[in-house]
Amino acid sequence: AAPPRMLASARYELRLAALPPDALIAITAGAMRDSAAANRRAEALLAHHSPPPAVATDVLADPDLAPCVLEKTGLRHAAVCKRWSLICAPRGAFARLVETAGDASSELHAAALGELKRLSGEEASSRRVEALVALLRLGDDEDEKVDVAATLLLLAEDGESRVAIAAAGGIEVLVSLARDGSEAQKEEAAGALWNLSANDDNVAAIVAAGGIEVLVSLA
User: Is the overall model pTM greater than 0.70, yes or no?
Assistant: First the structure.
């Protein structure tokens, strides 16, 4: 005799076979949404029986084409456009992300800022320092800027990070914050500049940015 589980499976197959295609699609989509295991199984079946054409992969990996294609589908606000650009085709994509984050009129402005925040929190990301500096320059959350400056202060205790922060334009941004920010922002920015000054090249950059005068005024 057939095992009970096999009989139950056969009954389900017979019942499902009687359903129209749209009902089967709805059931499958629901299972994929609610069950990680079902999602993985469905993705494996799709990859085996209906792999995307190579041209589709090429388009989704292109930072210029992917947003255009998704816009035609109505997904104009999809932050995933920038996510794809950063992961699949990094050339120039980060610069476009920062540009979008700085454009308050862009429909992707908030999404771009959100992506910068995500990157700034990933300790293993090669873009973390650049994302932190960009957030300090472009962010509109004053409390968040205090946290970002404090993070840069801690990172600047490391020699390699001092170089990375300077290369990302962090010295100029920190000098500006130490001069024009809130009291809390000034304190964290001044601390970050102090740590950055352990590098001789950074000292020259701090002087060139007018940072010495700012730091003296805060002393």
Answer: no
Closest CA relative to residue 67, chosen from 127, 117, 119, 107:
107
List, as one string, the DSSP characters of 34-84. H-HHHHHHHHHHHHHHSPPPHHHHHHHT-TTHHHHHHHHTT-TT-THHHHH
Residues 6+ apart with CB under 8 A from 185: 142, 145, 146, 149, 177, 178
Q: Looking at the predicted structure, is the pLDDT value of residue 98 above 60?
A: yes
How far is Cα 8 from Cα 147, in angstroms, rounded to an integer?
Answer: 57
Read off the pLDDT of residues 39-65 as tens digits, 9 standing for 90 and up: 777 777 776 666 666 555 555 555 555
The sign one gets for the Cα dihedral 82, 83, 87, 88 is negative
